[in-house]
Amino acid sequence: AGVKEDSFNVLDLAEYTKNRPWWRKVFAPSSGSSAEKYNVATQLLIGGVTGWCTGFIFQKVGKLAATAVGGGFFLLQIANHTGYIKVDWKLVERDVNKAKQQLKFHSSGNKVSPEVKSKVDEVIIFLKKNVILTGGFAGGFLLGMAS
């Protein structure tokens, strides 16, 4: 019984990307921001449209969430008033006071964890590199919230 050896071609992605300039432009770490390849008007348009869509959706979801929370609170008040449920207000007050103490404890230290600091630094660097895109997004977001 003869054993047939299959030969496999190994694809080295590092070598493959060196020979493909379009691939290198898109995925190379030193390529900079993806928005930098667009002109100012296009960056403003992209930022404005995505901002408007985000603001519009945020407004609709916000209204829905406010209605759900308000309606839920209203139903709980009715259920409490009619006797279907009984709220232990002393327990609520104790839990609120405990939460206040924890907030005071955490805010007195005033130290930010390194993970949060690194993420904030990444966001700030992105915003600085894409000022035009960010400005368009902010304007579009405000328009979306207003519509």
Automatic annotation (TrEMBL):
The keyword Chloroplast does not apply. InterPro entries: FUN14 (IPR007014). It is a multi-pass membrane protein. The keyword Plastid does not apply. It is found in: Mitochondrion outer membrane; Nucleus. Keywords: Membrane, Mitochondrion, Mitochondrion outer membrane, Nucleus, Phosphoprotein, Transcription, Transcription regulation, Transmembrane, Transmembrane helix. GO terms for cellular component: mitochondrial outer membrane; nucleus. Pfam families: FUN14. GO terms for biological process: autophagy of mitochondrion. Belongs to the FUN14 family. Binds directly and specifically 1,2-Diacyl-sn-glycero-3-phospho-(1'-myo-inositol-3',4',5'-bisphosphate) (PIP3) leading to the recruitment of PIP3 to mitochondria and may play a role in the regulation of the platelet activation via AKT/GSK3B/cGMP signaling pathways. May act as transcription factor that regulates SREBP1 (isoform SREBP-1C) expression in order to modulate triglyceride (TG) homeostasis in hepatocytes. PANTHER family: FUN14 DOMAIN CONTAINING (PTHR21346), FUN14 DOMAIN-CONTAINING PROTEIN 2 (PTHR21346:SF5). This is FUN14 domain-containing protein 2. It comes from Burhinus bistriatus. The gene is Fundc2.
